[in-house]
Design goal:
The complex is a heterodimer. By secondary structure, chain A is mainly alpha-helical. Chain A is built from nine helices and no strands. Chain A has one domain. Chain B is an alpha/beta fold. Chain B is globular, with a radius of gyration of 19 Å. The chains are: A mainly alpha, B alpha/beta. Chains A and B meet through helix 5 of A and helix 2, strand 6 and helix 3 of B.
Chain lengths: 248, 254
């Protein structure tokens, strides 16, 4: 099992090394990156927005319940919603969801191309398939996923506002005061660092699973499932490591 | 010309090819035939560089392919076209985009020049009206022809065809065979075809290699098939009682 882990880790690193070699033709890679940015970014906007609203709303309602009857000022709810979404919930939950949506799609797409001999066809033409199929996805994700996470954080705060102010758990002025209190710009940096690392994980791991798939439709399904499971585990692990590194 | 020199390929303990030495000639349709599991596809994939041999060499003219660096291999591959068994057309692209893909990737031609070249090769394979159709919207025979068009769009020096007639009706198979043969002769390229189709063997087999259990069981051309005394060849080519009767009657007449 340990040998198998190192074997696969070695192949993963080799794949990344090959994927980031010099493109045959820059314009083709540029076009492909734009297409991937559209698929990953625009294609995920609705689900990210929906999830973000509920993240903010649930956080506001839960903390309202927790702080009820305590001496902690009510406006803290706005502050907690803002910081918890920026530091943790927006990057982590968004990327866990994207690992499911984008990651499984990448593994299935590349794995399907492997099984239908599309990758062999490109190899024979002289195309560096790891670079052409994987690099644009990683680059696109690293660019657009931080944007999605930023949007998710913003929408979460609005979701928190709707959940806290409309049912009159607190006043609008209290919520806005909370959102504007104790702001630390470094938290936004932390959010973007997490988003970039998670974006890399949720595209490179599924690419690996798809690129080396063997067998038929059952193996492709397994590769797609593994892509999501391993991405999720690695995102949570990276979240912990980044939290340690960035908050010390 | 492509030359295989003592090619051995093993998968774990299982030795699939046991030392193949042969030549594939320029301007000729070179056929690799044999029963399922004989090692035809493995040999083809070794020749084209998709597999690495356990030992042995593959020569593209005077170049030892497996001794080349990755970059040098890519340069050789730009001279190679391949038609896959299932055509391997990119589903999300139209016929025109599929054929244009190698031009987009490897040439600095203008859009107009690319379109002219694409239309030329599509005309060559008699698919003048199919530019904007997707692979899923055309028949298996048309997909093969698009595959051929894509394989020859960069004017390759070497053409590989993996089971070009599989899944096609006899009439369409003949059309595909003739097309491959004509392209081979007109462009003076080295064509290697991996096939089960006995019609192809008899019609376009300029140079035929019969594989059996990883070895060459017979080597010759289509004019030598009928009169050969090689029992394995006869059992393979004229496998059915009907074909055996046909062979016997042909031999009696001659």
């Amino acid at each position: 099992m340990i040998l198998n882990f190192f074997h696969n880790f070695g192949r993963y690193l080799t794949m990344l090394w090959t994927a980031f070699s010099k493109p045959e033709k820059f314009s083709m890679y540029y076009k492909e990156t734009l297409r991937q940015m559209n698929d990953i970014g625009v294609g995920s906007l609705t689900i990210v927005g929906l999830i973000a609203i509920f993240i903010g709303a649930v956080t506001a309602v839960q903390f309202s319940y927790q702080l009820d009857g305590t001496l902690v000022p009510r406006y803290y709810i706005g502050y907690i919603v803002r910081d918890s979404t920026i530091i943790e919930l927006a990057p982590t939950i968004t990327c866990l969801v994207l690992a499911g949506k984008v990651g499984s799609n990448i593994a299935a797409e590349i794995g399907g191309m492997r099984q239908k001999e599309h990758i062999d066809a490109m190899e024979i033409m002289g195309v560096n398939t790891a670079a052409y199929l994987i690099m644009p996805k990683i680059v696109a994700a690293v660019i657009v996923i931080p944007m999605l996470v930023a949007i998710a954080a913003f929408v979460s705060v609005i979701g928190g506002y709707a959940a806290a102010v409309i049912p009159q758990l607190m006043s609008e002025a209290e919520y806005i005061q909370g959102v504007r209190s104790f702001f630390q710009p470094f938290n936004v940096t932390m959010m973007f660092v997490k988003a970039i690392v998670f974006a890399f994980i949720l595209t490179s791991v599924p690419s690996f699973q798809g690129y080396y798939v063997k067998g038929g439709s059952i193996e492709l399904g397994q590769a797609s499932t593994n892509a999501v499971v391993y991405s999720d585990i690695l995102i949570l692990l990276a979240d912990y490591v980044l939290a340690l590194l960035l908050t010390q | 010309m492509i030359r295989a020199e003592n090619l051995i390929k093993s998968f774990g303990e299982h030795e699939v090819l046991k030392g193949i030495t042969t030549e594939f000639y320029k301007g000729k349709t070179n056929l690799i035939i044999g029963r399922s599991g004989a090692g035809k596809t493995v040999l083809l994939k070794l020749l084209v560089g998709l597999f690495t041999p356990t030992s042995g060499k593959v020569w593209y003219d005077d170049t030892d392919f497996f001794a080349l660096s990755k970059k040098e291999k890519r340069n050789i591959r730009m001279k190679v076209g391949m038609l896959f068994q299932a055509s391997a057309l990119f589903d999300s692209m139209t016929v025109e985009e599929n054929v244009r893909f190698p031009l987009d990737m490897f040439t600095n031609m203008t859009s107009k020049e690319k379109l002219t070249r694409v239309n030329d090769v599509l005309h060559r394979v008699s698919l003048d009206e199919a530019n904007h159709r997707y692979p899923s919207e055309i028949s298996g025979g048309m997909q093969k022809r698009v595959g051929i068009a894509r394989a020859i769009v960069l004017d390759p020096e070497y053409l590989f065809c993996d089971e070009p007639n599989s899944g096609l009706d006899p009439k369409t198979s003949i059309v595909i065979d003739e097309l491959i043969r004509n392209i081979t002769v007109e462009n003076n390229i080295t064509t290697i075809i991996n096939t089960h189709d006995m019609n192809s063997v008899m019609e376009i087999g300029d140079n035929i290699i019969l594989l059996n259990q990883g070895n060459i069981a017979w080597h010759g051309d289509n004019s030598q098939v009928l009169g050969s005394e090689n029992e394995f060849l006869q059992n393979f080519i004229f496998a059915s009682p009907f074909l055996q009767r046909l062979r016997n009657s042909a031999l009696k007449k001659s």
